[in-house]
Amino acid sequence: MNLEAGFQFITFLVLFGFSNYLMMLKRYENHLKKRQLIQKNRISSLYPKGTFISV
Question: Which of 8, 26, 34, 55 holds its CA 20 to 30 A away from the CA of 18?
Fold first, then answer.
């Protein structure tokens, strides 16, 4: 009985860790997209409108 409970606990930990990893990966990707957009906006503000850089 204890061996089965141990396997269930390990399975729970693996599933919980994997779901946590996926959530953190999604959060990181969203943060990366925001950073790239902010960087493009800052770079495009250095050039006058109508030039080759546009956002």
Answer: 34
Structure tokens at 41: 């906006």
Q: Coil, strand or helix: which one is 55?
A: coil
**High-pLDDT (> 90) share of the chain, %:** 69
Q: Is the separation of the CB atoms in 35 and 45 below 8 Å?
A: no
- pTM for this structure? 0.66
Closest CA to 29 of 21, 41, 19, 17: 21
Considering only CA atoms, give the Rg of the chain. 23
Indicate if the pLDDT at residue 9 is higher than 80: yes
